[in-house]
Amino acid sequence: MINILSSKHYKYLLVPVVLALTACTSKPREVYASIPLVSANEAKPNLEVLPATFSTILSDPSSTRLTHGRYDVSVMPTYVSALGYPCRKMIFSESGLSSKKRIACEITYKENTILVKSWFLENAIIESDDNIIL
To answer: What percent of the chain has pLDDT over 90?
Structure first.
């Protein structure tokens, strides 16, 4: 068998391997923002407010179902949106039809100088037939 790499060529191979290994083991730099990217908006959102009965169920992290006259609604676990709002995905099922998914978020806003929290049905990002009217 022919030895392709002689002993003097191993040192040229050793340098890139060592550099690659040290790059993989080093910690990434930590980034801190001194200016907030999104300012707090205290105006009432121009979204559909969910009924008070929905709000109490959505505020309870252990709840998984909602009752509505027309739909069977499954509620997914709470997560935090990019704007910092607690949100939950809701799956609306109607007998014989395909299910529709929407997002509800709890948003704090000012109403007559008083801070109020309400759950809002977020607008769909992509136009589709998932428009649920309650």
So the answer is: 9
Q: Helix, strand, coil: what percent of the chain each, to 5?
A: 20, 30, 50
Q: Supply 29's token pair.
A: 């730099």
5's tokens? 């790499």
Nearest to 91 by CA among 68, 78, 74, 103: 74
* Backbone phi and psi for residue 19, each to the nearest 5 degrees, phi listed first: -65, -40
DSSP secondary structure string for all residues of 60-103 = -TT--EEE-SS-EEEEEEEEE-TTS-EEEEEEEE-TTS--EEEE
DSSP assignment letter at 7: T
From the number of C-beta atoms within 10 Å of its C-beta (0-12, 13-18, 19+), residue 80 rates as: exposed
Q: What is the pLDDT of residue 81?
A: 87
Q: Which amino acid is at 113?
A: T
Q: Is the dihedral of CA 4, 6, 12, 17 positive or negative?
A: positive
What pLDDT score does 76 carry?
93
Predicted TM-score of the model (pTM): 0.61
